User: Fold these one by one.
Assistant:
Number 1:
Amino acid sequence: MTNERTTEGGAGGLIIVVTGDDDRFASARRRAMSIAGSSSDVLILYDWDAPTLFGDPLPTWWSGEGSEDLFSRRLDQTRLRAAGRATIANQVAEAEAAGLNAFGWLPSDHGPKALAAYAREQRASTIVVPSALEEVQGLDVLLNGTDQPAQSLDNATRARVIVADEEGGKDRRP
């Protein structure tokens, strides 16, 4: 089941999927790729692991003259690799090999608020999150600002939020 609210800007055509530096969110990526493939939507792989306590995942103004101009709000494989995110670049390459128009994004802040803000900015029509983000514990609660990231995301954006089961089961609303 999904939350059937309309897109933030009314334009649609963009899906954001939460991914990570490993394959623990692979089922969410597969679900998002399926949706994007059937609708010809743009797919953005949002790297949930990118934010760190020690720095921004992208170059800052002081890290090199003009380097901030190399990075937009949608990163292709080349820019992801330049930022040291080969795993995410490979995931974008996989989506492109499947015929999708795909990009990545490396947020500098943790949690559903940052994802919701990015989704609003990009006018996302759909956000796919893994079921692992329905409830979190321990340090994840502190980093995300909530113990229920998927529900918080659903409350903070008008995009349709899909929670993808790890076993390939039905999608459900948060």
Number 2:
Amino acid sequence: MDTKKTEWFESWFDSPFYHILYKDRDDKEAKLFLDNLINHLHPGPGAKILDVACGKGRHSLYLNRKGFTVCGFDLSKESILHNKKNETKTLTFTVHDMRNPFRKDEFNIVFNLFSSFGYFDDHADNEKVILANAETLVSGGSLVIDYMNSKKVSKELIAEDVKECRGIKFFQKRKIDSGKIIKNISFSDKEKEYAFEEHLQLYSLEDFEKMFRKHNLTIRNIFGDYLLNKFDEVNSDRLILIAEKA
């Protein structure tokens, strides 16, 4: 008998309700962020970019339109199926677990954006993501991780709120337990009750520095927002790291 535990993200990310809850993510802000990163990194024409945890592919599509060869992967089969209709010779999508090696020594830039890191309850699994990202880069390639500023988030955590999207009221409860934020999401739709969870490990800059050193990555830049202003652990909303593979 298969007793494999189902991870929280396996059901939630494939659910249509996940995309309803987060439908108002700011595309204009995302494009500005990507433009700022590209202007900072100066990849050459046709550079190969990997979009880790690509979701429904908005970043991959935008980067491809800017002339780069892009591959996006995600664990969500539903999201990748949605993305497949946009594939071209220079834009591809595949189902893949970010903990596992992808294609070694192939990409000039690896993007891991919008807090798509720290999903796993076991630290060793999160560190596998760093290793896999490093292995897929060419020598001198850049890894960009866009993560929350965990110290600020911990201090300002909103315990409960309600968000209404498309007529559905999402009741959200948050707590910090065992070094991670756990968010419980409950709602009803068409007279049926639903409940999901999200887990996100609270990693500090120091934690990332240790993981990067261990896996042959050197931090070149640390930014605190999507305009690429300097990181401040008290005031910055984001922790954006750009590391180079030795």
Number 3:
Amino acid sequence: MKIKNNKTKKPGIRLKVYVREDMVGGGKLELLRIVGETGSISSAAKKMGLDYKRAWFLLDTLQRCFKDPLYVTSRGRGVSRGTVLTQLGSQLIIRFSKTDKKVKEVTSSFLKWLEENQRLK
């Protein structure tokens, strides 16, 4: 989720869905997906170039959008420690990904038109 300071050369679109006071977006869901893969918020944060506090904040704001947990963290030692996604968390990632793909398909001709008609410098 590293934010690039350079502007894109091609028009693009990013899906963000507002839920109550917060939003669900691709960056937060990528973080959640990596947490599910690694079983660790810390590992996911490192993989995305975030510090742990920022990753935890992003996951917390994502969680506040939902009445049921997206992930469960077990502290302690041994095999049972770590973070696992709940069924809701997994469904959210899948549904958002499908919706994002459809949005990009629907807007592709508009984005192509924008690219053809954009100012070059």
Number 4:
Amino acid sequence: MSINRVIISGNLTRDPELRSTASGLPVLGFGVAVNDRRKNQQTGEWEDYPNFIDCTMFGARAESLSRFLSKGTKVAIEGKLRWSQWEREGQKRSKIEVIVDELEFMSSRDGGGQSYGSQPSSGGYAPAPAAAAPMPDASSSVYDEDIPF
């Protein structure tokens, strides 16, 4: 048995980018910075070290949320890790990203968080779940043109 679940919270590192697959499936890509605290061995002080996590969300919820997310937005995300690899200019490349199932705003104008996903939460409004869209497999060319290097 394998378990592949991840929960992170942090701030968006850039404005999200909404694209569509060749079949019209909305794909939302964004980055989240998650700080890790470590003790600096030389100074003895605790310091924050950012981890930059690529996140991808599919379907109608991705399209809807793209209007509310922007750089700096604090969010909590639940999803699963997905590893993909490709070849560019003769060099093999790979990455691990979070495929987002649930997204909750950790701060808002009125001070309350809002959850957007397939499960309603007690802390806020959750819209009705969108029909499950088929996930493109990692070997498809969805990501080839989206890789920044």
